[in-house]
Amino acid sequence: MKVIRFVFFLVITLALITFLNTPYNSIPPLGKLLSPHQGFWQNAEKEAISTPSALQLEGLKDEVIVRFDAQLFPHIFANNDEDLFYAQGYVTAFHRLWQMEFQQLNTAGRLAEVLREGFLERDRQQRRKGLTYGAQRTLEKALADPEAAKIIKAYTQGVNAYIDQLDYADYPIEYKLLDYEPEPWTELKCALLLSMMSDDLSRGEADLHNTNALKLWGRDTFDILFPERHPDIDPVIPTGTAFDFEPIAVNKPDVQFPQPLTRPKIEAPDEKNGSNNFVVGGSKTADGSVLFANEPDLGLNLPSIWYVCHLNSPNYNVMGATLPGSPLVIIGMNDSIAWGMTNAKRDLVDWYYVEFRDDSREEYKYDEKWLKTQKVVEEFQVRGGTTVYDTIVFTHYGPVVYDRNYDVSTEQLNLAMRWTAHDASDYQTFIQLNQAYNYDAYSEALSKYVGPPQNIAFASAAGDIAIRISGKFPVKWEEQGKFIMDGRDSRQEWQEMMPWEHTYKVLNPPQGFVSSANQHPGDGTYPYYDYDYNFEYYRNRRINDRLSVMTNITEEDMMALQNDNFNYIASELLP
Fold this sequence. Notes:
Elements: H1 2-20, H2 30-34, E1 54-55, E2 64-68, E3 74-78, H3 81-107, H4 112-115, H5 120-128, H6 131-143, H7 146-164, H8 173-178, H9 187-201, H10 207-217, H11 219-225, E4 276-280, E5 291-295, E6 307-313, E7 316-322, E8 331-334, E9 337-343, E10 349-353, E11 363-366, E12 369-372, E13 374-380, E14 388-394, E15 400-402, E16 415-419, H12 428-435, H13 439-446, E17 454-460, E18 465-470, E19 485-486, E20 505-507, E21 513-516, H14 539-549, H15 555-562, H16 568-573
Parallel strand pairs: 3-6, 10-19
Antiparallel strand pairs: 1-2, 2-3, 4-5, 4-21, 6-7, 7-8, 8-9, 9-17, 10-16, 11-12, 13-14, 15-16, 17-18, 18-20
Helix pairs in contact: 3-7, 3-9, 6-9, 10-11, 12-13
């Protein structure tokens, strides 16, 4: 009888141990999760978050001091730049490791590895958009630049120094709930952060929708429903600003747009996101100093998409918003200048109809030639499921996103994506902005900027104010890229990029302020075609109307204007 009881309790014990240590679908092993020594109890909120004031880590060359202020913003003091960015990577991972990794899994199309097959379709979208393709190009350019390479490598080493010291008990709670562990950080993951921002900020377009509308309703109705520019727009660059350059001549060819009806499938960026920034010169402020406000309203995230940090070394003394997973300060100030950004809404995604020579898709037509394609086989590891493969065909335009493997209409349709985010970005923009000391240094930094296009406002301790619409912009003829283009016709391809000197800019305008709120950049006198698939007409006018009449402006006035919620749409619709 004792033997029977012993065997019974042994079986029950083994069954319980097995049950508590086995995941079931999306439920993690309950034994590990509920363990008071290793599980979620270890992540319970503490009275204070403790972190060493002096980092003593393998890989550091000298002492690094980290001080957290009352808002838990880290202030990092290092004796050399490599230690500075090593520490930035370490401290950012200390607070935001899971966010950093999850963002890059999403951008790289790897969510199904963690969240199972329900996210496979999203992963396919992410890879077909070419986000990793663009990140790889950015990384290649960065590693060829000794200064950028040093920063990215140091930041990556710092993130890995934090990861390497973790065991299961130390994991952020998200890893325990989802039952997986952090993987080593890489330089490519830093570059993926830039792709993530481009995906959110510069992928907006209406080519497929416009093509459908034009085919269904005709030109006259289309132009009434979708005007390119509101006649009363209050642009980013003040009306009447002169442009002191000779533009590149552009002649519109006599072309017919392909007009297949399509059913757009890839999820569009959130059109409700909107930012603002405004800088007021000393002539309008109470104490004669320059005042700067920036509100970069991106999508709501928990935790925030931003991570505020102060970086100090012999070559840097800068504080502001960083992106978890990427070094340097993105929006901020040093002891000489401040800069801030809003999204510059420009059409930088064009779709090209592709004709393959045959079903092998080895060649595609380009004028009277047949060009070779490149095929990339993407492997999707699905947690708890079978591995899935997807073949993506690349042309010189970019990836063929819509094809027989990713159908969007009842007819066979091949559409290649040309997007500036597929081109290499340059870390020198932010390296130089972090160290800039006047308007000329700010302008030199922005001359390297690729995207996503931004209205980058500027203020200096010397009293200068400015705004420049920065990014890589193709020179287009009228309506180029507004509808689906014919990839068989070289005349419809982008021919060259706009010279940096030809971009919109204004320095110390007579009105005494500069501002932007995602509205159209100019008043129509700009010598280049600059189509925006959507236009902001209300928020920007409210800001400018208020700033134009405000005098003796204080910091509190700037804050009040940021919180102003007067609705011009309602005001102008009401009788």
